[in-house]
Design goal:
The complex is a heterodimer. By secondary structure, chain A is mostly helical. Chain A is 73% helix and 0% strand. Chain A is flat, with a radius of gyration of 22 Å. Chain B has helices at 3-31, 36-39, 48-57, 64-76, 90-125, 130-143, 147-161, 182-219, 222-229, 234-271, 277-286, 290-318, 321-324; strands at residues 82-83, 88-89. In chain B, helix 5 packs across helix 8 (182-219) and helix 5 runs antiparallel to helix 10 (234-271). The longest helix of chain B has 38 residues, at 182-219. Classes of the chains: A mainly alpha, B mainly alpha.
Amino acid sequence: MTLGTWLALLVALVLAAEAVRALRHRGLRSERWRRFFRHRTTSWGLGILTFLVLVALAAPLIAPFDPSRQLDILNLTNRPPSWTFLLGTDLLSRDVWSRVVYGARVSLGIGALGALMAVSLGTLVGAVAGYYQRWIDTVLMRGVDVGLALPRIFVLLMAVALWDGLPFPALVITIGLTSWFGTSRLVRAEVLSLRQRDFVAAARALGADNGRVIFRHVLPNAAAPIIVSAALGVGNVLLLEASLSFLGIGIKPPGASWGNMIADGAPSIYTAPWSTIFPGLAISLVVMSLNAVADGVRDALDPREDAA
Amino acid sequence: MTGAAWLLRRLVASVAIIFAVVTFVFILIHLAPGKPCGQVGGGEYVDRAACDQLVKQFGLDKSIPEQYWRYLVALAHGNLGYSFSLHRPVQDAIADTIPFTLQLAGAALLLDFVLGLGLGIYQAVRVNRLPDIVIGNVTLFIYSLPTFWLALLLLLIFGEKLRWFPVGGPNDLVLCPVVDSLYCVADRLWHLVLPAATLGLVGAAGTARFQRAAMLEVATQDFVRTARAKGLPERRVVLRHELRNALLSFITRFGLAFPFLLTGAVLIETIYAWPGMGRLAFDAILSRDYPLVTATALIASVVVVAGNLLADILLGVADPRLRVRADTDLVLTA
């Protein structure tokens, strides 16, 4: 670690803390934002997420080494954490800290993209099924039943293992395509009750077409469950990618993802636990932060508390 | 609609779902590039003639619709096929592994529910006080751990450093190759601790969070206020009024526990060298063992669908209100 990397790390830390503080300060003015920040864990979660996103974006500044470079296969394998190698080195003499930093790009990227795709698809299907009802609803929801009946790790294992060496975009799409079923059920239930409400009838009486009613009137009112399932979705997709990479069929080496780092470290866990522990800790931190933020969003957008 | 008609409809729907899953899996694996033969025994270095003979023997040279039809006919006769990679009937391979997965899942589920419900109820009673906040933060953290990483950590700490528990396998190979004595049953349980704790702890953290929220949700309702207003002791309000109603939503969670356990089984069994169905499924996929892959997917979907159905039936039995509300096909009508 050089002075520059420490400095970059410090800047990221301060920026994240300041961002959360500014948001909290601004939030004091609105009831919803106050509810969002009611639990201290939400602020922490938001701070950790901001920090890790900054780290991922500024990876070249914060990582002292090339994440895939084997520094010295003879003398530097499985070195414990030190000031030079902040989190130690792995079996192939790569710097664990640099790999965790660059792995953030892959893991957070897959999480965000996969969840974005899953939530969009789930929202669309749920809205169409709930709004149009009749046979469209029946067909879509029976499809969802089938999708939920097989644990998605089976489908993903088959897709990823059988089509050997699936490229990154295909991996994201496959994960997205298998992760939207739960969201679509939630959104459908919400839309079913919303479409009975007077404001929907009013919008239709004013001549709004179906697309407008769905996107401008119904879905904005179903925002709470959609946002919550998006936040949880990022964590789920990240865990899924990690599981696949851990089983050796996700992100291909030498590229670093937190999942394949754990897989790489696992064989030497008794002698060099740091190369397994730290990427796992990173995953846990992100998923925990997302869960905390989802709790906050749930509190903030709870309609029952709006009335109170 | 009567309860019996509802049950019949749900059963038919369940069979249809499982049939769709099997069809989907069948199509997916047959669409995948590569033949099972090329993978067995070292990729490209396979005798072409031997490979062709095997392909012919298992009927893989037929068209996909024809293979599908033959598979369905065999399935209707209760025949799951012959495993390419294990060289034995799929039924036997699955029958050998199911007990291990049941033991693992059963122990994990027990820990999940007992610990999770206990913590969730305790938190709800002490809501927003120190114990609730501490337990809340701990469960939030554990709930967020990747199960396979927790498995490795537990192995490192309790298996390698402290040496309290064995580091893998279902039993002691020297003293208990087969479980035939009381000592060997204890040995099995001892081997079961770490894998079951891994799955059970993560599950319990989720259950505790769920149960706490369900209890607090019920606590805002009028009948709880009435119970308190008429002077019932707090204990009775919590246990008889809040808990009983909060358990209704817990039943739904029970139905959703099965996909979690099956997913966990694939990873946990791989790490702990536990010879269960999850590991069998994973190995089958890697070796392109078509009949074995389809069969494990079939069983997984049966478990999930049966879990949902069981939860719905229990819900209908436990909550008479659901029998009159007939707005969805998920509820019983008396």
